[in-house]
Amino acid sequence: MNKILNDFLVLTSSGLYCTYGGFYIDPKVPVGCALISHAHADHACPGNQLVYCTPATQAIMECRYGNNASMSFIPKDFYQEFFINDIQIILFSAGHVLGSAQILMVYKEVRYLYTGDYKMQEDATCEPIDYVKADVLITESTFANPSVKHPNPDSEIQQLSEIPYNILLGAYPLGKAQRINHLINIHCPNKIVLLHHSIMRIHKIYEHFGVNKLLYKPYDRKIMKQQRNQEFVYIVPPVTFNSSIKVGDMVRVFASGWEYLQKNNNTSLYISDHVDWNDIIEYIKYVEPQEIWTIHGDGYKLEEYYKEMIPVKKLG
């Protein structure tokens, strides 16, 4: 194997930069050429001149940002090989949200795999994760701590069936809301899902890409006033949830893997779209990397765990 280049990816003020390819990955500010792993706002900023991404990510960015999404898109399907300068690139599913991609970059026969945000739990609303071999694994480390173990989402969502009130449920509009909607449909058949208008737009994109498993109704205040059957789950984005302090007889619930987001709610709902500690360890076993580079979180625990086995460094 050729030598791993320590400066193949560097973290700059504009974001993660591939020095040998001349492009950014998930840039923080608009750049000339960007590879975007998925359409969450902390990974997909608007205004780039040229964007490579999956078709679903393009559709969601255009829905959210309109004409400012990018000056130009070059959509790439999963497993489709392409080149940016001398870098061979293939996108693989990350299992995080619809269209989310891991980015495999091959340069001088060395394989660098950027995970982006990824998830190994089953999720019927997006593509399942692909397992990819690489020499260098650039992994997110959001929950890279042995103390973090995400509970079973089926068990978590079933709690809602036991709540004898209407529910105001906060969820991120992209990915989380669709997953929660499906889980409620399957495990809480006594509940009726109502959607905030901003989440409806993303649902429609999911349906366009073949996710037709979601049963829901647009939110209508009249419905809840006329039908006081206490079976409604009204899914809203975080900004609406946080501004709705007084919600009458509705129970407040927020879907997240973060403990601090469960405070001040009536019921906790620990459902995460990221890998936990055990998932990361399992994925590393499959990838069999020679080196691990961490980003989006604190990789200290991984460095400690793999001491004298695999070199681990934090980008930045």
Describe the overall structure.
- It contains 8 helices and 19 strands.
- With 316 residues, it is α/β, with parallel strands linked by helices.
- The protein folds into 2 domains: 9-146 and 274-314, 4-Layer Sandwich (Metallo-beta-lactamase, Chain A), CATH 3.60.15; 153-269, Metallo-hydrolase/oxidoreductase (Rossmann fold).
- The chain has a 7-stranded mixed β-sheet. It has a 6-stranded mixed β-sheet with strand order 1-2-3-4-5-6.
- Strand 9 (101-107) and strand 10 (110-114) form a beta hairpin.
- Helix 1 packs antiparallel against helix 4.
- The longest helix has 12 residues, at 176-187.
- The radius of gyration is 20 Å and the shape is globular.
